[in-house]
Amino acid sequence: MTLTDFIITILKNNHGDYKDLRRRIYSFYSDDKIPNDAVVRNTLSRLKRNGVISHNNNMWEITGEGKELMINEGRGLKNFFPKKSVKTKEGSQTLILFDIPENERYKRDWLRSELIGLGYEMIQRSVWYGPKLPKKFLQYIIEEKIYNFMHIFNVKKELLKK
């Protein structure tokens, strides 16, 4: 997934300030491939100039034209990002492992961006740890036939006591 695709995917249903965008970008890319600030700012500027995103009141958001672009490229998958930051109950966490085939790469990239938006942390590219998944999200991944490529575990993190 290109940086442009990733930014559009993030902003599809949620606006965000630059700091929030950078946080999501850092958690998506591996350490050796994180784009520097100049690349991110140039990409945002180009997308704004092309009418795909807009910048109002310090917030970046996708325009109607940007949403159409995603649908026309076959990436019209639904987004489930929460509007507020996710708060989890102590000890109630989920571990997700997935292996989505290369010919459905856009679904894999979509899933990663959604997990970031839902407050998940990447352990490895296809192993994520975070809060309980919303029921609507689970229903959607079943409908989109993504669930068949996933293993979802409820886990409890316990600290070792000396």
**Oligomer type:** single chain
Query: How many E-type strands?
Result: 6
Whole-number count of domains: 2
Give a quick account of the main beta sheet: strands, pairing sense, barrel closure. 4 strands, antiparallel
Helix content: 25-40%
Gyration radius, in Å? 16 Å
- Helix count? 6
Task: Tell me, rounded to a whole number, the average pLDDT.
Answer: 79
Q: Return the CATH topology of the largest domain.
A: Arc Repressor Mutant, subunit A
Q: Any overview of this molecule?
A:
This protein is α+β, with helices and mostly antiparallel strands and about 160 residues long. It folds into two domains: about 5-70, Winged helix-like DNA-binding domain superfamily/Winged helix DNA-binding domain (Arc Repressor Mutant, subunit A, Orthogonal Bundle), CATH 1.10.10; about 95-155, Alpha-Beta Plaits, CATH 3.30.70.240. It is built from six helices and six strands. A hairpin with a 2-residue loop joins β4 (about 120-125) and β5 (about 125-130).
Task: Provide a short characterization of the protein structure.
The chain is built from six helices and six strands. The protein is α+β, with helices and mostly antiparallel strands and 162 residues long.
Topology, element by element:
Blueprint: H1 3-11, H2 18-28, H3 37-49, E1 53-56, E2 59-62, H4 64-72, E3 93-98, H5 105-117, E4 121-124, E5 127-130, H6 135-143, E6 150-155
Antiparallel strand pairs: 1-2, 3-5, 3-6, 4-5
